Amino acid sequence: MRHKLTEIFATYDPHLARARQTASSRSMRRPVDGDLNIYRPDDDYHSSELPLKPAAVLIPLIDHKDGMTVLLTKRAQHLKTHSGQVSFPGGRCEPEDTDAMDTALRETEEEVGIDRSHMQVLGAMEDYETVTGYVITPVVAILQPEFKLQIDASEVDEAFELSLDYILDESNHELQSRVWDDKKRYFYVLMNEKHNVWGATAAMLVRFAKLINGTLS
């Protein structure tokens, strides 16, 4: 699987071009992919105004001998936004960050204590726009399992792993709907025994799975 992933991203993101995007270049460019594609809103539901708020997350693939997993976090309950939700390590770009890759690696170090020396960055997925006005670059990296988690309790309640095989199985990608403000909105959910992955995190995993499976349109 490691060889397959490396080959895919060598073509999909040659020379880490997406991963090396700067915050300023992303803030003024509206991505093709995002919440609006999934929510299927009526005409009165509009995109956020430019400039967007640039952010980056890491999709960390842990290369265990018995198969790869994806490391996810559960946001701390006391946070003002998205508390208790499952997410990737990551966050908003800071002025000192060189590019999206730098943001994703820095945030991963800060949130779960994994040093970037354990990571091989493969590239990045297409940017993803959220309804809250963020443009997120999902950076994909393979991690060697010889690391010790050091969770920052101010941001993260726990970190856990999901099997990559489970994520790549598209029968596990469920599109659900709910009525918000008298409008039906749609969102992806990847359900498992302990955690429900949904929203933007699930949508990015669905897109990642389709890329690896060769079913991305």
Q: Would you tell me the overall average pLDDT?
A: 89
The CA-CA distance between the termini, in Å, is 22 Å
Q: Helical percent range?
A: 10-25%
Q: Structural class given helices, strands, pairing?
A: alpha+beta
Biggest sheet descriptor? 9 strands, mixed
Number of helices: 6
CATH superfamily: Nucleoside Triphosphate Pyrophosphohydrolase
CATH topology: Nucleoside Triphosphate Pyrophosphohydrolase
Q: Order of helices and strands, N to C?
A: HHEHEEEEHEEEEHEEEH
Indicate the CATH architecture: Alpha-Beta Complex
| Strand proportion | 25-35%
Task: Describe the overall structure.
The protein has about 220 residues and is of the alpha+beta class. It has a single domain, classed as Nucleoside Triphosphate Pyrophosphohydrolase, CATH 3.90.79. About 25% of the residues lie in helices and about 35% in strands. The chain contains six helices and twelve strands. The chain has helices at about 1-10, 25, 35-40, 100-110, 165-170, 200-215, and strands at about 35, 55-65, 65-75, 85, 90, 120-125, 130, 135-145, 155-165, 175-180, 185-190, 195-200. Strands 1, 2, 3, 4, 5, 6, 7, 8 and 9 form a nine-stranded mixed beta sheet that branches. The chain has a three-stranded antiparallel beta sheet with strand order 10-11-12. β7 (about 130) and β8 form a beta hairpin. The protein is globular. The model has no long low-confidence stretch (mean pLDDT about 90).
